[in-house]
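Batch manifest, entry 17 of 40.
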Amino acid sequence: MAGSEGSPENAPRIAAFTQALTALGWREGDNVQIKYRWSAGKNELVEQYAKELVDNAPDVILANSTTVISAFKRRTESIPVVFALAMDPVGLGQIKSLAHPGGNFTGFTFIDPELIGKWMELLGDVAPGLTQAAILFNPDTMNPYPNFIREVQRTQKSRISIKPIPVRTTDEMMSAMQRLAELPGCGLMIGPDPFNNVHLKQIAELATGLRLPTISVYRSYVTLGGLMAYGPDVADVFRRSAAYVDRILKGEKPADLPVQQPNKFEFTINLKTAKALGLVIPPTLLATADETIE
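Output type: structure tokens
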């Protein structure tokens, strides 16, 4: 797992996965053993744990996040790997195609350039004066973003421009957000990234203090005080991942299991944060929210 064990993002993921696995007949400690590793967004731990798990030669690996998937890709061509929440696995060479992954990797994707375009649209709806939106990411833990941004720039017809904000430390993150807040008409997008995942509360608090309109892929960002979240139902992705683990344990090959994309999405708004930012949520947008937090 890319994040921290105690993160509010991760408890529902693991619960959904283990419950689905149990429903399929796999009982932990009885006919299946599960070993967990949590990298807390640290690349050195990703590398260490990937080596440990491959050396243990398990029957199947569940890998969460692009960085973790890449670490396993370098280490095994034989152990079946089911990835949960991968970004651009074809572009990164992790699989041959979504329909026919080939090799020992298959699983479920997370976001694509269209979702980034949706974030820009939602930010523009709540902040009509918005002219640019930045996307925050750590290039060491989440390298597909530059390709995604180029694709958004190529395909999106929007009055809002998009700019990358690569940061590697919390100090760099704070400085970048402060500079962004000094520019007129700016918003911030917090996409999937192990670095972002472990700093969600800090990002939410800083963004509110700087009066930056923001949107994240993580629902927990809103519960921690962030303005909005829109993205795949990640617990559902982990629930569906259990079915692939089950099929592999019963003898099917990853190469024959097509990579699937998210099919359930959630939109959450924090009305208290909107009020603190001086923003009025349009009633039409409010009506589309799956959840509002007062």
